[in-house]
Write a structure and sequence with these properties.
heterodimer, A: 434 residues, alpha+beta, Porin, 16-stranded antiparallel β-barrel, two-stranded antiparallel ribbon, 5 helices, 19 strands, B: 291 residues, alpha/beta, Rossmann fold, 42% helix, globular
Chain lengths: 434, 291
């Protein structure tokens, strides 16, 4: 009875419904379907999104266990050392051909050994193979080899450092570059310009001061950065010291840095002392070993670097270094001094430019050829560069030098040179220090 | 004289039992939340610089020389600047493998781990995308890690660290609920980023990254790729371009003007106007998903 009544009521209702109401119902159905579809999509999206609510994460115990086992930071997947290969080379063009250029000398300092970008033409300067690793809880070790274009292999550095000394001390031994001054310790590919600073090249030769030796460095417990170091090396005639007595070259330095707002200031004082080597001006062979000791060579250095950030990747860096050498020579003490000043402008992530001025300001020395005192100053060089880094690990650099520091066949010769250089870093190459 | 000096010295944080150095400002904020004034905190990087390429100022060596604990973001983010500093600081307490070396990345889930590793793919990190701190949900996890670490290194203040952590989480959960609510209308939308810096934030709220302005991680924009992005924005009707505050904004602005999408600049760390964690995520949420 009830069913019949309901049915007839529904039928009546449906029949009574006008066409417009049906349309509305249809529309609502479509809308509902659309909404359902959207909800379905949202649910799918939500499920696809990794959600790690706080409750999902490791328990206190698991976290503590991880801390206790010191496994955090352990991204080490093998015990192999980090290996990097750095390719460096380019094209050099200068107004002096290769043969006369190889005999070019800076008066008072002898013939220059040109290590990188030396040939007029293509140069493969080196393929640098660098390996580094932690040895054990107490030591780290590094070895850096240069394989040159002519097939020779050179041990640039090979040394170990301590990890676990207290009181801010660190000991280093092996073959390494001295931390004298600002640039001596840096490798060629980390230099601001393609060639070595003139005063560094004149005083210490292309490899800089260093070699087989030992070093102790101390970082002071001061609220600002203050570091002192002491080094001892075998004397090396190529670096201006006699090899007659071993381990006779000592280096010491003090470096400090403060921040003035955004500006970083780094300054250092350095001192090196060793037995004098006396160079025969006719050839490059040192003749000291046939003589008795000529006394001491003493070198003082001071450096100042200021970095002014300009926002983003842009900054201005002003870097300066001065040094003076008093060298006991055959019948007098040579007094020589020089400096460089560099202004680098990092334009953005990819581009940088810079200008450098080098000068030998004081140059009174004993001329072995003439067997008399000589004084040749007014030796200087101006360089400009433009750098392009497509990526963190590749760099192209164009540099122009106007060089008034060289003599060829005892005549002053102005050398113009243009260098286009590439540096490519492959593998696990570590970041560079400031 | 002694009487006068003593209270002066005691108020000085130099006498805190644990000296902590942290890589980025957000870690410093977490540390403050958990430790209040119980530890002395030094923050190295600032919010305005690219977290991958912080200038390794020598003054940072001075900070690292004397600290008991170094807290890093990890995941390879600091590889370009922390290792030489650590090497020069001569502090055995904080070198990798020591108790005082804390890499936060090992306590969170990392996304976008590459299946193959080649620098032809740009600056990819073997560990995955290291910008996990952009997910506000991760902050509570990190606070907990820091709380546990401090408690183990300084058991005398354990209760205080626990209480502060509980207080932080309570507050943070309120904020998370707010952000969830504000972000919910933007779920299932698409954006363009400059670098995959905000992926964790966007993933959290169901926003899909349709592309990046840089063609590959760490590679500057190219005109070809920029045109591709403009076309993609037009066809897929993408409304938002997210730019970080250290890369040049010109490309994003150019793309915006050509495609009709809006370009927004998001801060990625605590500093400047966004001087607290709350403000940092408030600004990210408000700018990304305007109600």
């Amino acid at each position: 009875m009830l069913k019949k009544t309901v049915l007839s009521l529904v039928c009546a209702g449906v029949l009574a419904a006008s066409d417009t109401e049906l349309e509305q119902l249809k529309k609502q159905m479509v809308q509902l379907q659309q909404q359902l579809g959207e909800m379905q999509k949202r649910i799918e999206m939500f499920e696809a999104t990794p959600v790690t609510a706080i409750s999902d994460t490791a328990s206190d115990e698991e976290m503590l266990q991880k801390m206790a086992t010191k496994s955090d930071g352990g991204t080490v997947t093998s015990l192999l050392p980090d290996i990097a290969l750095i390719l460096n080379g380019g094209y050099t063009s200068r107004n002096v051909s290769n043969t006369p250029y190889s005999s070019a000398a800076i008066p008072g300092f002898g013939t220059m050994e040109i290590q990188n970008n030396g040939k007029d033409g293509f140069n493969l300067n080196y393929a640098e193979l660098a390996m580094s690793s932690t040895v054990d809880p107490y030591f780290d070790a590094n070895a850096i080899f240069h394989i040159h274009g002519d097939g020779t292999v050179e041990v640039e550095e090979a040394f170990f450092t301590t990890r676990a000394l207290d009181y801010g001390l660190r000991f280093k031994a092996g073959k390494f570059k001295s931390a004298f001054g600002r640039v001596n310790e840096k490798h060629h590919h980390a230099w601001n310009f393609e060639d070595q600073e003139l005063v560094n090249n004149a005083f210490f030769g292309p490899d800089g001061i260093g070699g087989e030796g030992a070093q102790l460095q101390w970082v002071a417990p001061t609220p600002f950065y203050l570091m002192a170091g002491l080094e001892l090396f075998n004397g090396n005639p190529n670096q201006g010291f006699s090899a007659k007595e071993s381990a006779s070259t000592a280096v010491t330095y003090l470096k400090g840095s403060i921040d003035i707002g955004n500006v970083t200031v780094l300054a250092g004082l350095s001192y090196a002392q060793g037995k004098s080597v006396v160079q025969d001006m006719n050839g490059s062979e040192p003749i000291v070993d046939s003589f008795t000791s000529y006394g001491q060579t003493r070198i003082c250095g001071a450096d100042l670097t200021v970095e002014y950030p300009l926002g983003g990747y842009s900054s201005l860096i002003w870097q300066n270094e001065w040094m003076q050498r008093n060298k006991d020579d055959i019948s007098m003490t040579d007094k020589q001094a020089g400096y460089y000043s560099e202004l680098m402008y990092k334009i953005d992530e990819n581009w940088a430019t810079g200008i450098r001025y080098d000068e030998i300001t004081k140059n009174s020395y004993y001329d072995a050829n003439l067997a008399m005192a000589a004084n040749v100053d007014n030796l200087h060089r101006t360089s400009i560069k433009l750098e392009y880094k497509p990526f963190e690990f590749s760099r192209f650099r164009l540099q122009y030098n106007q060089d008034h520091s060289k003599y060829i066949d005892d005549q002053a010769k102005t050398i113009h040179e243009v260098m286009l250089n590439y540096t490519l870093e492959l593998g696990a190459h570590g970041a560079h220090a400031f | 004289m002694k009487k006068l000096l003593l209270p002066l010295l005691c108020t000085f944080p130099l006498f805190a039992s644990v000296h902590v150095t942290v890589a980025y400002p957000y870690i410093g904020e977490l540390l403050k939340a958990v430790a209040h004034a119980k530890v002395e905190v030094s923050v190295l990087a600032s919010a305005s610089s690219d977290p991958h390429f912080v200038t390794p100022r020598p003054s940072y060596i001075g900070e690292l020389r004397d600290c008991d604990l170094l807290i890093l973001n990890g995941g390879g983010l600091e590889i370009g600047w922390i290792p030489p500093l650590l090497n020069q600081a001569h502090n055995p307490k904080i070198i990798q493998g020591s108790v005082g070396y804390l890499d936060l990345s090992t306590y969170v889930k990392m996304i976008d781990k590459p299946t193959s590793l080649s620098r032809a793919q740009g600056d990819v990190h073997a560990e995955g995308n290291p910008h996990y701190a952009m997910d506000p949900y991760n902050m509570a996890i990190l606070a907990k890690v820091i709380m546990l670490k401090l408690s183990s290194m300084d058991p005398a203040n354990k209760n205080a660290y626990h209480a502060n952590y509980d207080e932080f989480v309570k507050h943070w959960n309120v904020k998370l609920a707010q952000w969830d609510k504000t972000m919910s209308p933007c779920r299932n939308t698409q954006v363009i980023q400059y670098h995959e810096l905000f992926s964790y934030f966007l993933n959290r709220y169901g926003i899909h990254t349709a592309g990046t302005i840089e063609p590959l991680p760490g590679i500057s924009p190219s005109s070809k790729h920029t045109i591709e992005i403009i076309n993609q924005i037009r066809t897929d009707k993408i409304s938002t371009i997210i730019q970080d505050d250290y890369h040049e904004p010109k490309t994003a602005q150019f793309i915006a003007s050509k495609s009709g999408a809006r370009a927004i600049i998001l801060a990625h760390d605590v500093g400047g106007e966004n001087n607290t964690l709350d403000k940092l995520f408030d600004s990210m949420v408000e700018q990304t998903c305007k109600p």
